[in-house]
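Quick sanity check, GNAT family N-acetyltransferase:
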Amino acid sequence: MLRIEDLATRPELRVPALQLGFVGGEFLGQGLTAGLASSRRIAPEFFLVLLDDGVPVARAAAIPVAFPAPERPELPDHGWDSALVWAAEDHLDGREPTTLVALEVYVAESARGQGIAAQALVELKNRARRAGLSRLVVPVRPTGKPPLESIVDYLGRRADPWLRSHERLGAEFRKIAPFAMTVTGTLAQWEQWTGIRLEDGHTVVPGGIAPVLAATEQDLGVYVEPNVWYEHPL
C-alpha cells in the first residue's frame, strides 16, 4: 500500500526521491532554475514522496505562487522557469501565495502503469485545497513529442499520453508555454551532458523534445523546450 510523505516532515527522503531518476536527459538539470527546483527550501510540504513498503517509488513537486497578480495577469510563456522565479520572488518578499504550480511527477520505471502518477496529482490537489489556495496549474511536459515536430502540430494530433492523463483527471488546457525551459552551454558542456558533439544548426539529443540549436563560432548550444499549461479544478 502506498504511503505519501513530504519533505516538511521527512526531509531525509529528499536524496532517495531525487535518485529515482529524472524526466528527459541529464542536460535538463543544467538550466538556471534547476537548482531552485531540487533544493526544496521553498514549501517542502509540497514536495511529495510516495513510498511502497517504505521504499520511495515516486515523487511529486509543486510550488505556491501569487497568481494572478497585477504584474502577472497570465500564465507565463516561460512556463517552468518562470514559475520557479515567481516562487523565489514571493518567498523573498513574504508574499502570500494563491496558486499551486505542479512542477513534476516522476515515477520509477519499476512502478509505472499502476496509476501512481494520478494518485500524486490528486494528493497535490487535496493539499492545495487544505492550504487555502484557489488554483492548481501545471506546465505539462509533452513527453511523447518528436523533437522536430512543432508543438502546435503535435497538440493537434492529441497523441500525448501524459497530456491525456491530466485531461482524464479533469484538467483543462490553458495555453502553450513556448519557452518553458531553457538550457544553454558551451559545445564541450553539451558533449559532456549528451555524448554528442554539436554542429551548426539543429541537433536532436537524447531526452529532448526539442532540438539543440548550436553556433560553433560562438561556442554555444541552446535548448528551448515547450510545455503546455493545464489547470486542474479545485
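Posting the structure with no commentary besides this: The chain has a mean pLDDT of 95.
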